UniProtKB/TrEMBL annotation:
Gene assigned in the entry: lxn
Source taxon at top rank: Eukaryota
Pfam families on file: LXN
Name of the molecule in the record: Latexin
Keyword Ion transport among UniProt keywords: no
Amino acid sequence: MASGELNPNHYPAQRAAKVVQHYLTAHYGSPYRLFGLQKDTADSGRKYQLELLVHELISNVRKKENCSAEVFFAKGEERTPAQVEVSCKELIKNNTLDQEEALFQQYKTNQSLLSAHDLPDRYGHMEPDTKPLWHLGIVASSFVMLNESTEDTLYNMAQVANITQLFESLVLLHDMVSQEIPRWKLLFTWSPSEGVKVLQMEQLPHCHECEKPLKTD
């Protein structure tokens, strides 16, 4: 296996780092907790070793945490999920349990199902009370992006086309390498105590009529 330092701003390092972001979001995210990356370094080959600064995206907490990670992309014609190991001394502590419990009770007691669509809309806007559902869509889609990521992809969430408790969602992803917008249908559950559990995920046929969202950060 070849080794050597990669420029953190080049795509090979960014792709490995993005997989780590999907891993952290899938395993530790919630309607009020998402994670972003500040910088990364890596060595080349199929195995990437990274040093990252992780920060929490939703809160106003400015603390950043040093994490180390190892990402391994298996060889072979059959696509297999990347193997990811992450070590953080402690994930950024931002107690959102009260907010999560309030949202959980809201959708448990609501006489009508919570639902939303086009998050964000084609102009990048969404109503404030729909943002927790957008965040849930990001957490659930991180399972898909983690499973689908290879050395040749770089996924971001583009849009939650629709989401209805408990919880069926159509999400649009954005592969920044191919510029394709794959559509995935997800069925998942969420609770403050157990987090997001993805029960089913299915990639839908390509839609030529689907308009690409303008915001794909």
